[in-house]
Each structure stands twice: as C-alpha cells, then as structure tokens.
Amino acid sequence: MSLQANPNFWHLPRNAALHGHALDTHLLLNLWIALALLAFAHIVLLAGVAIRNRTTRPHNKTLLEYLPLAALTLLFFGLAVRAQQLWAAQRYTGADLSAMQVEVTGMQFAWYFRYPGPDAAFGNTKLSLASAAEGNPLGLDPDDPYGRDDIVSSQLVLPAGREVDLTLRAQDVIHGFSVPEMRLKQNAVPGQTVHIHFTPQTPGDYAILCTQVCGLGHYRMNATMHVVPQADFAAWLAAHEAKP
Amino acid sequence: MSATHHRTIGFGYLAISLIAVVIGTLLSLAMRLHLTWPNWPLPLHGPILPEEYLALVTMHGTLMLFFVLTVAPQSGFGNLILPSQIGARRMAFPCLNALSLYLTVASLITLLAATFVPGGGPIGGWTAYPPLSSTPLAGPGQGYGMDCWLAAIAMFSIASTISAVNTLTTIVKLRCEGMTWERLPLTVWGWFTAALLSVLAFSVLLAALLLLFCDRHLHTAFFLPSQELINGVLLQHRGDGSPLLWLHLFWFFGHPEVYIAILPGMGLTSMVIANFAHRRVFAYHLMIATTLLIGFLGILVWGHHMFVAGLNPFAGTAFSISTIAIAIPASAKVLSWLATLWRSKPELATPMLFALGFVSLFITGGLSGPILAQPILDEYLHNTFFVVAHFHLIMAMAGVFGLFCATYYWAPILFHRRLSEPLGKLHFWGTILGAYSTFLPMHLTGLAGEPRHYAQLTGITPAASSLLQSTLPLQRHITASAIFLACAQLPFLLNLILTLRRTAEAAENPWQATTLEWSPYADSQQPEEAPVVHHGPCHYSASGREFLTQWSTETTFQTEPE
Question: Between residues 402 and 431 of chain B, which touch chain A (CB distance below 8 Å)?
Fold first, then answer.
C-alpha cells in the first residue's frame, strides 16, 4: 500500500507548498495507522463477543495490558516526535531574512493584503483612519513617508518558489487565516501580530478561508491566493507600484 | 417522594436533558438541511439566514454540552443511582441539591429565552470568543442574546459547582459500612473524578464569565486590546488585554468539561461489560488509577485547542506532549474492556449492546485524538469537520451511548420495569448505524478542507467554491444519515411510553448484578436494614455461572481470581 499513490482515498486537496509534502506524508501515515488500529480493535472486540471459551484466570496482566500499552505508547510518541520535528522546522524559527514581506489584515468579512513597496518598509497605520468606504481599509497614515508606496490589495499575489513571511493582524474580532492547499492555518488576533512563513511552489489559484467564526459573514470571508511565476509577479508588482 | 429526595431531583435533571436533547437534535437537523440546501425554507419560518445558522450552531452546542452531556450522566444518574450504589440513604446536602436543580432549570429557561430577545440568539458558538462576544456591534445576537447566554451559563456553573461539592461529600462521608475505596464500583469512581473536575473547571468558567460581563458592561478590557474597530466604530479601552486570556480560561474549563461528560459513561461501561460477561473487570485497580489519571491529565491539555491561536510555538509542543500522554490511560481502559470481553460470549441484552457501542465509538473517536494532538497536523485540521467528527464520536455519541446504557440497565430500578428488549435492540442498531453513517464521512469532508461554522458551501468565491465542491455528495449523505439517526430514537421514546403504561413488575436484580443499588434493601430507610458491604464488585465463579453480590454475607463458591 503506497501512501502517496492514493491520497484521494482521504479526500485531501492537492498540495502547493514546499512544506506540504512532508506534512501530507505524516498525516497519511497517521490516518492509515489509525485505520489499522480501528480495524484491529474491532476484530478483537467482535471476536471476544462471538467466541466463548472461558480460560482459567488469572490472565497474564503484563502480556494483555502492559505490553500492548507500552507498544501504543511507543507508537504515539514516535508519531509525536516526527510531528514535533515538522512543527519546529516551520514554527520555531522565523522566516529567512530574504523572505518576501506581506501583511494580512482580517476584518468582518474581508481579507486585505499589504506589500511594503519599493522602500521595503510598511508605513504606520491608525485604526482611527481606517475606512473601507474612503478607500483606506487599513488606516494608512498619510503623514508617514514609508506608507506612501505601500500596496494594498484584496488578492494575495505571490511568486512561486520564494519564501513569504506573512504578518497577520485583525482589526475587530479573531479571524482564522487558512489556505488548505498551502497546508497553512493561523489565527489573526486583534491587538497582536503573528508571523507565519511558507513557500508556495505550484502556480495556481488557491482559496483563502476564514476558519474562526467571526460573525454572520464568516462563511463568505474568503479571498484568493494567486501564485504566479516569478516574471508574472514582477510585472504585477511593477504595475501596482506605478499606479499611485 | 419529597422534593429534596435525590430520586426526585435525579428525574428532574433527566427531564431537563430530555427537553434539551430534543431541541438540540432538531436544531442540528435544521443546520444540516440548510448546509446542504441553502435555500431550503424552514417550515413556519422561511429560509435560514447566515446569522440564524450561527445561532443554531451556538444553541445546539450549548444545549448538548451543558444540558445533556453534563447534566444527565453527572447530575441525573449521579442522583438516581450513586447514593444506593454506595449504600447512602441520601445525598449529603438535600436542600442544596434541590437548589442546584432549580438553578439549572432557570439556566435552561434563560438560555432558550436568548432566541426570543431582540437580535436573536448569540452567534459566536459555545466557546464565545471575544471580541465577537464582547460587544453588540460585532453582530446580531451579540447584544441581549449574548447577555442571556452569559447569565444562563453563569447560573449553570454555580449549579454544577454546588452539585459537584454535594457528590464529593456524599462519596467521601456517606459510604456505608464495608464500602471501602477499593470496593467502590467504577461508576462511582467516574462520578467522583468528574465531580473533582467540575469544582475546578466550573469555578474558572464562572470567573471568566464575570470578566467577560465586565468587558461588556463596565468598560474593562480583560479580553480586549486597547483599540478595536468593529463595524466601523472605533472602540477605545482603558486597559490593554488579550482575547487569548479568554481562550486560556475557557479551555481550562472546556477540556475538563468533555471528561466530565464522558467519565461516568466509562465507569458504567466497565461495570456493565463485567456484569454481562460475568467476569471481574480486568485490572480493576488500574482502571481506578486510569480514571484518576485521565482526570488529572485532563486539566493539563487545554492548550491543544490553541495550537494555531497565536501562542508561542513552544507552548504547542508542551501541550502536544500532555495531550498524547492522555492517550495512554485511555488506551489502558480500552485494553481492559477488550480483555474483560475476550472469549466471554456475553448475553447481548440491550444495556450490553449500548456498552459495546460505547467501546466501539470510544475507539473510533479516540483514534483521531492523537492525530489532532500533533500541532503540525492540527495546523491543517484545526476547525475543520475532522474535529467535528472526532468530538461527536468520542464525546457526543459515546456519551449518549453511556446514557442509553444507563437507562436500559437501570430501568428496573428507575421505573420498576424492564424496557422492551425488541424495541431496545431496534433502537441500538438504528443508532449505531446512524451514528457511524453521520459522523465517519465528516472526517473526509474535513480532510477535504471543510471549515466549521460555515452557513453554506456554495455561492462563495470561485476558489473556495471549487475547493469545497468536492464535499457536496458527502454532505447530502451526512444530512440523510442525520435524519435517519434522529428517527432511530423514536423506538426509544415509544419504548419509554409503552413501558411506563405497563403495570409494574418488580423483578429483583434481573441482570444478576453484584453492585449495591440492586440490593432488595437499597431504598429502605429502616435503620436495621442499613446496608453492609462484604466484597468488591463483579465477583463471579470461574465458570461465570454463580455470582457474589457486594452485600452477600457468605461466600458459597471460589470466586474467580483477579
């Protein structure tokens, strides 16, 4: 049974991120082990119920209880150690210094994405200035020179193959930033910034979902991540940098 | 029976749960129908709006978690059976006991009233994360509806704490002569551990609810940052708090809460399996130890609900280890059940079927636990239907199977009649089939990416629609199965009605049980009939044909060694 040959048995969507393959392999390993244990335990359960052959007690407690328990402990901790390696690789350190910086802001019921522009620095924002109706949903401060070249977009456009460092924020309530095809999920919490980094690999359009209930429009708080080849991204960036 | 008699109070709690479970089930069917066919008009109401969908989710979760899975096993059967199982004539504090029942009734009424106040019921789910739950600006239902919810759950917390103190005192002080801690049935250990957890968990919840009330009405900011912009209104707070504090406090309550819901069922399952297999519980002392260990570890694992909430990633590692650790005592329990059953060919009466169903659901729901305990996998699975499948199997379905097992098993004590076996078996097979058919496919829709709390899966952005499209055939299957599962409960209701209409036939100890609640003097108030316990529970002869009750004075055969 090959784990990778038949991922659709488990209905997993395609993976488009660099770290996704290792995550999928570990997830499928877990799922198959759980399925095998499920089947085995039920066979023992049903056999015990169906067969009558009372043996003299006492049973060997070491054999029946402690040995299987030790085996399960080893198994679970083995899986946990592997998961821990993957978690540490993704979360214990920040993004590479050369990673692209994008800020993600969640608000009822939309995502906004901000690029720092040619000066490679984000300008200040003030909640008191924020107004989607006035074309300034993030509250960019017009007095801050760093903010003048910032690009604010409702789509997350990213070049394939380059690491991205996302800075997550929320204006109002907690939102969940999730891109299933990038095997990525992290909550955006008001009053706090959270970083998450990853490398999109395969060009394509991917759904960005809100995965933390945030109000009546929760289900439609979606956006799209466009992963494009490097050259197309450079062209997109140039077009947006030229606009203001 | 007087109003402060524990049996009266126990039936009162079961009545609350019955009302809550009927409403909660109907709400879940409305949710399923809306999720599958978003334009489906609810009779007498019309199409369900997104905020109404979320109000349904919130009410369903709150009713089921608090008023069914906490009330029925712990307060309901805890009052009906626990005193006679330890040879006590009453609960330690009968008046406080009645008070907590009345508070629970008031709590249920207040919760249901939330639906009818301006703005409707709250929409933030049973976890009520701020800032969504801290201001009416955040959405309909977050004004008066949320206040009703807070008041209801605060009353519930007080009632549960009082009730838990009562249970603990009763077990510690009122055990009859000879009922040593080692001879306590495992059900009593389940109630005991759940009561310990209740005292800890509900006091923390009550504190959190008070702080949230202050944030809502007294301009504090325990859970709120200094500035937020909600619905176009800039809110300035004097303090600078964090929503994560609520998550910590809530889940410090919330995770022990799920053990409160399941521990009595685990204890009952152990006893019923031993009863019908005519054997000792395999590794009885280990079962006591694992019950306490699950309780202890249960208060150390709350952070696994917060792997992607914005905690330090090292915290994720720590909570992952404590969560994986709890799988070990849980596995020990399963091994004991399997070993007790092994080659026993028990009589498959309805209570036994539900106990076996409990074991099956506990295994199936439990095996996805260690998967979700790995932060890197939870990063993909968090808040998807995979999690919904996990907790519905291990907590909701296993918990409900524990309740059905209790009802069929103890019916001769509760109603002085056995429930009908053919109807009971029909009920069992329909329920287990419906449960698996409903909740197993949710693992797959979750793996496909379906998030929780989505009012609809179509009519959203093209990328999201095409991602979730693949789950639509399964959605229809799940909805049909949920309707089947609900209908499978009709034989149970019919069984209750038909049985209660029959004349009472007081069969003494029909299951050949060994525990004290089956003693002919269990309900006697005569001092000379005070129970005395001479043995531990579940003593059978090696052939399984003879049994020794806890109250027998003489041993006529060689009991099976442990």
Answer: none
